[in-house]
Amino acid sequence: MKRFLNFYGLLIIFALMQNSVMAQTTEKFPAKYDPTNVGNKVGNRFVESAHVLYGKSIAYSEVCTWYGALKFAELSGNTAMKDKLVAKYQPFYAEDKKLIPLYDNVDHSVFGALILELYMQTKEEKYLNKGKVFAYNQWAVPAGMKLTDTVSNYVKLGHSWQTRLWIDDMYMITMLQVQAYRATGNPVYINRAAKEMVFYLDELQQKNGLFYHAPDVPFYWGRGNGWMAAGMTELLKSLPLSNPERPAILKGYQTMMKSLLKYQSANGMWGQLIDDSNSWAESSSTGMFAYAMITGVKNGWLKDPKYLLSAKNGWTALVDQIDAKGDVMNVCEGTNKKNDKQYYLDRKRNTGDLHGQAPVLWCAFAWLEKDNIPVNAK
Question: Which residues form the signal peptide (predicted)?
Fold first, then answer.
């Protein structure tokens, strides 16, 4: 009997410990910061907004926002929002068909990730077939295209012909291939993404865990690092524990997250240039880093309680940047690489820019996701 009681007592203690962990990540926020309230506000703002173009086709920033809104609608149970988001795509089969991007660069190709999310939520084959075309063409060199010697070497090593070693790529390439894996279960896609990620980690991550914008641009641009953080996060969420590249990717992710703790400001935000305390507080990077940390805590990749605190501080600071309309303030405008520190510091601060709207929705759905900590998480 005594042995039974001791065993029963251990079960109670274990259950309390589990509940304590769950409470850490499912804790309620005040109404202003409640993920469902914020997600509804920003998601509805997106539903009502006009398309944003990148050249003559849909901008990647809209794709990322649309994806975030769909995931939020799914996890929050907002079927009305989901229906509107699906309906928003239907003109692409008619009058808006001309707005569909080509498969000619990373910023255009990520459009396929949106189509694949539509498939996963509706199970309509038309989305799957089109999305797979984007994923296929990210690795298949277009007929007649002459590649530079550098890119030709990348392709010979098994990398995408769209490889250019800008940190932005590690969301655009990774997200498309991960979505194709999620939609089909075909390991070819996730293996591609993992190999590509390790290549970028080797080439661009510095000893402090942060990333140069490109090999010839030695600055820690906030949103660029945000793309890398979000890309690693999406990849780790779906990458099998048995994948040989996983340890290197997890290490790169954890090293980055540890460094970000050091550079988060007292108000919860990160700067336009992460390591420059005099640079202005920037919203899109703050949202991307918060998303990476929320997800890392929920999946057991980040065990120290300071990461959850950092994520909460980043989230509340980000929500404070949302105006009455649902537009995010202090968002860095679209930015190419340039070996000039002042160039980054002088970038325009936009309000309502979808580069900033997207990570708000990512964070909102991340808070709503269930904890998913495997027994053998490292």
Answer: 1-23
